Amino acid sequence: MSAEIERKYTVKDQSYRQESIECKYYKQGYISIDKERTVRIRISGNNAFITLKGVTTGCTRKEFEYPIPVADAAEMLGSLCLPSIIEKKRYIYPYAGHKWEIDEFMGNNDGLVIAEIELKSESEQFDLPPFIETEVTGDPRYYNSNLAKHPYKTWKEKE
Asked: What is the active site of this protein (predicted)?
């Protein structure tokens, strides 16, 4: 079984951009966004993936990801995925022995910036970079699949 152990945080400034070692554009959509499972199609550059994720318990969930042809992914995004495709830039920021991924959302989620860290265990210790604001791990509003249904721009007073 493959597991994803992830913590998520809002970001208070763009200082991460200065020391990021990579920035990629992502376009992704969802074939399924049930509570029990999500099925995501993602394209980044010359790579594409189909990802299946299970229910989140704490900050852990089952995750299976497989490469697929970019042409197939593009067709799935256009014909099989639910409306509201997610677009974002992802910055990779190394900090205190960990790799942080900072997503700057675009389109209907413009203005939202989320930092994520993947861990080996839920109890793993780590230091927070200076740009971190508030932890939102477990808050379903910040799941990408929910941002496709309820984009950030539609949140009242940024709930």
From this structure: 30 (proton acceptor)
